[in-house]
Amino acid sequence: MELLKQKILKEGTTVGPEILKVDSFLNHQIDIRLMQEIGKEFHRRFKDHKITKILTIEASGISIASIAAIYFDVPVVFAKKVQSKNLDAETYKSSVYSFTKEAYYDVKVSKRYLSSDDHILILDDFLANGRAALGLIEILDQAGATLEGVGAVIEKGFQEGGQILRDMNIHLESLAIVNRFEDGKITFIEQNQT
Ligand code: G4P
Ligand code: NA
Ligand code: NA
């Protein structure tokens, strides 16, 4: 997605060879017009699927999923990572390993909001090693729901998440795929536009 790539080049900064900071429009401040174009683009790429819900994970996935959901006209469910007394007792749950935090954390979704009738699109900001996406897939498997696809705003092409999901024959759409950063320089892996 050209507009997104231009924004990454203009405002993205790198931290070492593997971390891309996009706090000015995605992870701290949110550029809502860009989000709208991202939402439209996900809809364009997944519109041939029958989707009943968009599933994401708190916190950064929520704004992306919410704006995309307007175009699909479906609800958003976000998996919770933070323990809360308010969460229903009956939950689907998976344990996710975070490479950046070097620790496991639980993600939970109330059984109320996912069922075997659901056709799910998973959306998130980053696809790195894919552990968050795999955790969400485990949750929708527990619910007996159908996975229709996974969308990432930014895929880090040098980490294994993209390969794992493609090897599982999952319809994966990444709006920008970045290479490992050499001397702080951001470059993209070109994709065949469908
Ligand atoms: P994985 O899920 O793909 O295996 O990745 P990992 O555990 O390494 O990622 C943990 C968190 O870091 C996720 O957000 C993910 O979106 C984010 N992340 C991974 N690589 C980058 C990067 O290069 N830049 C930025 N800005 N974020 C990255 P999270 O900790 O769950 O936090 P939240 O922001 O969604 O609350
Ligand atoms: Na995230
Ligand atoms: Na994040």
From TrEMBL:
GO molecular-function terms, A-Z: xanthine phosphoribosyltransferase activity
Ranges in coiled-coil conformation: none
Entries under Pfam families matching the protein: Pribosyltran (PF00156)
EC numbers, comma separated: 2.4.2.22
Reaction(s) catalysed (UniProt annotation): XMP + diphosphate = xanthine + 5-phospho-alpha-D-ribose 1-diphosphate
Pathway(s) it belongs to: Purine metabolism; XMP biosynthesis via salvage pathway; XMP from xanthine: step 1/1
Keyword field contains 4Fe-4S: no
Residue ranges of every copy of the Phosphoribosyltransferase domain listed in the record: 23-154
Localization per Swiss-Prot or TrEMBL: Cytoplasm
UniProt enzyme class: transferase
Binding positions (xanthine): 20, 27, 156
InterPro entries associated with the record: PRTase-like, PRTase_dom, Pur/Pyrimidine_PRTase, Xanthine_PRibTrfase
Amino acids binding 5-phospho-alpha-D-ribose 1-diphosphate: 128-132
HAMAP family, per database record: XPRTase (MF_01184)
Subunit structure: Homodimer.
Name the record gives this protein: Xanthine phosphoribosyltransferase
Species name: Fusibacter ferrireducens
Gene designation: xpt
